[in-house]
From TrEMBL:
<keyword id="KW-0560">Oxidoreductase</keyword>
<dbReference type="InterPro" id="IPR002347">
    <property type="entry name" value="SDR_fam"/>
</dbReference>
<dbReference type="Pfam" id="PF13561">
    <property type="entry name" value="adh_short_C2"/>
</dbReference>
<keyword id="KW-0521">NADP</keyword>
<dbReference type="InterPro" id="IPR036291">
    <property type="entry name" value="NAD(P)-bd_dom_sf"/>
</dbReference>
<protein>
    <submittedName>
        <fullName>SDR family oxidoreductase</fullName>
    </submittedName>
</protein>
């Protein structure tokens, strides 16, 4: 863990991974700005713990510059951006409503890139005398980029696009900003997932357990603590079962 309290922006803190990460970083003494579209009990609990909550809909690209200025109004320094917000549509839903494919690209690719750019303009990370990065951007992608997902081709393609972009962003932003990705496999089931589906998913793993969101928080801690890591993708998938 880094010793200095950091200022951190996380998109999509209303539930699950984003909510857990915000809670974890607040408990560690960091200043956390979290975005939401819908208010939830989890969001209110985070606000009670000190979260600075700002509304943001990543589908509204025209509002991203104003949002970045709003963040700059809350802090004079931003150490870490975690691009967590996501939508997960099946290909059959995309076939029925083709705009969902565009929406996934906007939420996973276009808006996070543009938001990172707007934040750099509104609240610049600066080149430091000691050569360390002043800021880090972390994109949450998906381990299935490597394996493939026959029912989620559009979702996986959009996650692959942003994972590939971390290398270009790191080139653009060096030396003031590091850019990394965390690519989880299964983290948490949804309550509606039935027992057969759970067995099927777990049996595809080398280590067949449901890890929960804490492994993402552990990985964010590591990326914050180790200043050398840049342009890296950390896969959280328990390894890959050969032939599956
Ligand atoms: N859970 C897993 O097993 C798993 C596996 C692989 C990868 N991941 C990745 O890990 C990250 C977190 O997963 P999760 O399961 O916690 O996701 P989730 O439950 O679907 O939550 C997604 C978050 O994104 C926000 N969001 C959705 N659309 C948005 C938009 N247009 N603008 C702004 N925010 C928006 C949601 O807020 P609102 O509800 O307010 O819209 C919510 O807070 C995602 O990037 C996901 O792709 C998760």
């Amino acid at each position: 863990m880094t010793s200095r309290a950091q200022t951190i922006l996380i998109t999509g803190v209303t539930r699950r991974v984003g909510a857990h990460l915000a809670e974890h970083l607040l408990a560690a003494g960091h200043r956390v700005i979290g975005t939401y579209r819908h208010e939830t009990d989890a969001l209110h609990a985070l606000i009670d713990r000190g979260l600075i909550a700002l509304p943001l809909d990543l589908l509204e690209r025209e509002r991203l510059a104003a949002f970045a200025r709003q963040v700059a109004g809350q802090t004079d320094h931003l150490d870490l951006i975690v691009h967590n917000a996501s939508i997960w549509h099946r290909d059959e839903d995309v076939a029925a409503n083709p705009e969902l494919a565009t929406a996934m690209y906007t939420v996973h690719v276009t808006s996070p890139i543009e938001l990172t750019e707007h934040l750099q303009r509104a609240l610049p990370a600066r080149e430091r005398d000691d050569g360390h990065a002043d800021r880090q951007a972390v994109f949450i992608t998906d381990a299935h980029i490597d394996e493939g997902e026959p029912d989620h081709i559009h979702y996986i393609a959009s996650k692959a696009a942003i994972e590939s972009s971390i290398r270009s962003l790191a080139l653009r932003y060096a030396p003031h900003t590091r850019v990394n990705a965390i690519a989880p496999g299964l983290l948490m089931f949804h309550p509606e997932d039935d027992i057969e589906y759970r067995h099927h998913r777990l049996n595809r793993r080398l280590l067949p357990f449901e890890p929960g969101p804490g492994v993402v928080s552990q990985t964010v801690d590591y990326l914050m603590a180790c200043p050398l890591i840049n342009q890296a993708v950390i896969r959280l998938d328990t390894g890959r079962r050969w032939g599956n």
